[in-house]
Write the structure tokens for this entry.
Amino acid sequence: MPDPATDSDAHAWYKALLERCKALAPVVTAVAHPCDATAIGAAVEAADLGLIEPILVGPEAKVRQAASDAKVDIARFQLIDVPHSHAAAAEAVKLVYCGKAQLLMKGSLHTDELMHEVVATGTGLKTERRISHVYLMDVPGRATPLLVTDAAVNIAPDLLDKRDIVQNAIDLAHVMGFPLPKVAILSAVETVNPQLQSTIDAAALCKMADRRQIVGGILDGPLAFDNAIDEGAAKEKGIVSPVAGHADILVVPDLVSGNILAKQMIFMGHADAAGVVLGARVPIILTSRADAQRTRIASCAVAVLMSGQTVLAVKSPLA
């Protein structure tokens, strides 16, 4: 595996991602409660890179103090003053609902606060599709990005939830340039076990794909993580599958396992990451307070590409 500190190709996919966005006009983005230096800094940097045109929504004094702490100039941006984070979430969602913004970006408020307004009946951004989160991971030593879902929104999804989670990820993969993504439905084992619900769900999802209840990808599961991404491990287990060893999308059983997997890739595998929420009327840029600035910018770039339906090349510059 390349050393992220010395490898000359480190962050190459991230750089290519930004390069692809240069042909697109900035997308008007409602930024909910950017009230710390990290959140406001990411919004301003994304604007400076030509990705977004932010509308800052939050308590004016706190937003301006955050900008001062981050040493960034926000004079050129629209700032909507609201009393607190709950109101910021509601107003940011309203801007999108009314067509005044085309993207939604989480600032320094809790995810639950923002998502509560996103899914609100009558005023939110729900569609018929279940809302879910996808991480795109550029892992050193891997030729193409890896999509991981759902690690941030759905705590314990049932079978129908997982159907939408899979379809959301496939749709994103298409936008990112995977014409027929290989989808691994993960569990702890590769065989169906009635005592392990994730294996039953995996088998059912594969049959749903056969019946075109899920379209646009090749599904297989249950698969364990090793034989989903490593061809040698798959061969050792005697698994014959177009997906095993070649997965583009990893669908985890629940939020806990997905969150752990994603953070291991970032903090121990030195992956560059981007995260976006799908299934709503517009892409939602939903990052963690612990995320690096690069992750926040990459997430903006992915959302912008989705908004413009611009297709990235499948092959990563890391190859």
